[in-house]
Amino acid sequence: MHGLINRSIQNFVCDSYGPANWAEAARLAGLEFTEFEAMLSYPDTITPAVLDAVCDVLDRPREEVLEDVGTYLVSHPTYEAVRRLLRFGGVNFSDFLHSLDDLPARARLALADLELPGIELREHADGQFSLLCEAPVAGYGHLMMGVLRVMADDYGALVLLDHTGSAGGVETLTIMVVEADYSAGRSFDLGARA
After folding, report:
1. Model confidence over 37-77: pLDDT tens digits?
2. Heme NO-binding domain: from which residue to which, for each copy (predicted)?
3. Beta pairing, strands 158-167 & 128-134
4. Would the pTM count as exceeding 0.85?
5. Domain boundaries, the chain
């Protein structure tokens, strides 16, 4: 697993719950270190072990923790680049949803060796969608729910989200866009400010 993913979990725990909780999670996970290097690769078994340890330390289910990680990745000032990458998906929330199929490829433009799980959007009726998420780590769909909640707010859309389960390594989310222009949303400029 790419170190950036593990480092993001580490940063989430440190920023949200403090370094002492992260140190305890690292110890429980059997890590011989407490700092992930963002540009290194780690064995795929480390990420689930770290997530299990974080859940034990925080006494929270994995689904809640991963949804909070997804929220953190898009809303925390440290990860403004992630929000910007996602906002390039379209001028409104529906455009953004349709751009999600391309998210793994867009992420590779930023980091060539970053392999995000595949995502497939299916449109069912006006404003109703399913998002199929390959889940190499159980709960990845919940992480995407956190991302989608923040992005809906970012676009000013009123959206209902539900995780409807997993089968064959794929987690499914249902998305209902209740009102596309519910609020003003957050401003976005194509050019980054210095």
Report:
1. 988 999 989 999 999 999 999 999 999 999 999 999 999 99
2. 2-156
3. unpaired
4. yes
5. 3-60, 73-179
Whole-angstrom Cα distance, residue 120 to residue 25?
33
Compute the radius of gyration of the chain from its Cα atoms.
Answer: 17
For 115-150, the pLDDT digits (tens) are 888 899 999 988 899 999 998 888 999 999 999 999
Among the listed residues 102, 165, 108, the one whose alpha carbon sits nearest the alpha carbon of residue 135: 165
Cβ contact 50:25 at 8 Å: yes
Helices marked H in 2-139: 3-17, 19-28, 46-58, 62-75, 80-87, 93-99, 103-110
In whole angstroms, what is the distance from residue 177 CA to residue 192 CA? 29
Q: Are 119 and 132 in contact (CB under 8 A)?
A: yes
Contact 131, 175 (CB under 8 A): yes
Q: Say which CATH topology domain 73-179 has.
A: H-NOX domain (3.90.1520)
> Going by C-beta distance under 8 Å and a sequence separation of 6 or more, which residues neighbour residue 180?
92, 93, 94, 127, 155, 157
